[in-house]
Amino acid sequence: MDHDAVAQAHHLLRRGDVGAAIRHLVPALDASASRPQSLRLLARLALHQQDTALASRTLQAALAASPDDAELHALRAAAAKIAGDPDALEGAARRAVALDPGEPLATALLTEALRERLQVGEAIEVASACLARRPDDWGTRLARADALQFAGEAEAAERDARHAAGTGGSLQAVQMACSTLLYLDEPAPDTPAGAARPDAATVLARHRELAAAIPPLRLPPPPRGGDAPGTRPLRVALLSPDLRRHPVGQFVEPLLAAWDRERIRPFCYSDGVPDAASARLRARCNDWRDIRGEHDMRVIQRLREDRIDVLVDLAGHTHGSRPQVLASRCVPRQFGYLGYLFDTGFETCDGIIGDAFNLPPATRSARRPLRLPGSFLCYSPSADAPAVAARAARGERVFGSFNHLAKLSTRTIALWTRTVLAVPGARLVLCALGLADPATRERIQARFAEAGLPGGRLELRPPVTSSLPAFLAQYADVDIALDPLPFNGGTTTLQALWQGVPVLTLPGQRMAARSGLSILAAAGLSDWVAETEDDFVNRACHLADDGQARIAWRRGLRDRLRDAGSCDAGRFADRFARLLEDAVGA
């Protein structure tokens, strides 16, 4: 009887009627005899429909009959994830993995949960144990790729993501296969490109190949009529899961604050969990759309109802984006900006917004580059940023970087090690979220030791999350900040400059490898832009030796940023509006 009920449910599913399949299986909850197959399928379907009440009731009944069933505990972990209960998720997933060390769903969920709790070393171990048994489990491989990238192991992360995209084919796997490419080292000028060090042209070709695997949605014909853009303000939708306490939210705020509403009418399509920063952004935007949990087709319907002229995607292939919305051409113009510093590969994208520094002539980072005058970023310094702290002209010199560990590429570690060793007695200070995890600290320490940096000259600090002022106050200990490659800092570079700390950068080919150049050149600080690795080390030594110059910079960098217009929201918003108006009119 149990087998027959499941067979009938599968017949209904093949017809696409999930609701009917659920209704057919629900009697198993009250059946006198145990129906384990029916209950397992019912639990899966309830989770698919995000009916947590039905899923919980079903799993409770199923576990009462089979308390040591690993798959049921894995489904309980999935239910906890939907319910937003991380403690229950971890407990259920650990129980499932204890019963079956290769249980794929539980392992993937546990790996994700551990990574989110910054237990990155254990996350990698858990995933690796499962993959030793099930090497083609793409969900676990994708979760491990995320953890490896978080730990700065770009090449291993890219291999896992590529494997996951090839075996699983999910949208998430395809997107991670794209994004991990941006963290791979670029080939040195005198070496050919390869799989571990692809050039920009190879990365672009791979993006186009992967994006072509994301199917567009079947859309009804667009509505006709309505007033033309030239007769009213341009309707611009900003689409992102990061309109919150996040660099994307920070850099969007100047636009929302300063756009002339006679020219631009902004709509914020927010796809993330709101916070205090979201509330501040929302106060600057009359047309705020909370689209969390909405189906892509509903999002497209809302874009059309709002008669959007331009969709500015702020996420690209990062977590929480809407790839099928982007692939479907639901508005007249679509542009990428800010949250993904490369061409997404979608044929429906009409351009990538940057500047002349990060999208130079003949760039391979974007097929259709759109260039803002000056830098592509406008900085809004925090009102409660601490005062610039004084540093002695003589004594120990300290290099520092507070960038995400994902940016610690092999070439970055080698270059920074050379730089620190070139200055007698100098130290390197790193502060990042991942350094809260002892296993991750050991991995980073080992990578620098392998490059030749003694442990006594490297300080690894856990994250400072109590407040932004407390985080920024750490620049009181740093003389010179080092920009990672090939994925430069953005927020961290501007924060360092605001706290009076010079930043050294070495531009690369790809857009993400030229953010430092964009920020420094636009502020008239090109002396800190190196041309080669040798030049990078030489400029670092010169800055380290010139204590009086460093003191002068600490006193004057804030004025330099203001005078250069790096914090001028009005000018930036005007330039951005003009760029969009020209692009739509073209």
Characteristics:
single chain, 586 residues, alpha/beta, Serine Threonine Protein Phosphatase 5, Tetratricopeptide repeat, Rossmann fold, 7-stranded parallel β-sheet, 5-stranded parallel β-sheet, 9% strand
Describe, in plain words, how this protein is organized in 3D.
The structure is a single chain. Helix content is 48%, strand content 9%. The protein is an alpha/beta fold and 586 residues long. It has 3 domains: 1-168, Tetratricopeptide repeat domain (Serine Threonine Protein Phosphatase 5, Tetratricopeptide repeat, Alpha Horseshoe); 234-380 and 569-585, Rossmann fold; 397-564, Glycogen Phosphorylase B (Rossmann fold, 3-Layer(aba) Sandwich), CATH 3.40.50.2000. A 7-stranded parallel sheet has the order 3-2-1-4-5-6-7, covered by helices on one side. Helix 1 runs parallel beside helix 3 (36-48), helix 9 (138-150) runs antiparallel to helix 10 and helix 17 runs parallel beside helix 22 (533-545). The longest helix is centred in the C-terminal third of the chain and has 18 residues, at 547-564. The model has no long low-confidence stretch (mean pLDDT 94).
Short description:
By secondary structure, the chain is α/β, with parallel strands linked by helices. The protein has helices at 2-14, 18-25, 36-48, 52-65, 70-83, 86-99, 104-116, 120-133, 138-150, 154-167, 171-179, 200-211, 247-258, 276-283, 296-305, 323-327, 410-421, 438-451, 468-472, 491-498, 515-522, 533-545, 547-564, 569-585, and strands spanning 234-240, 264-270, 287-290, 310-313, 333-337, 352-355, 369-372, 398-401, 427-431, 458-461, 480-482, 503-504.
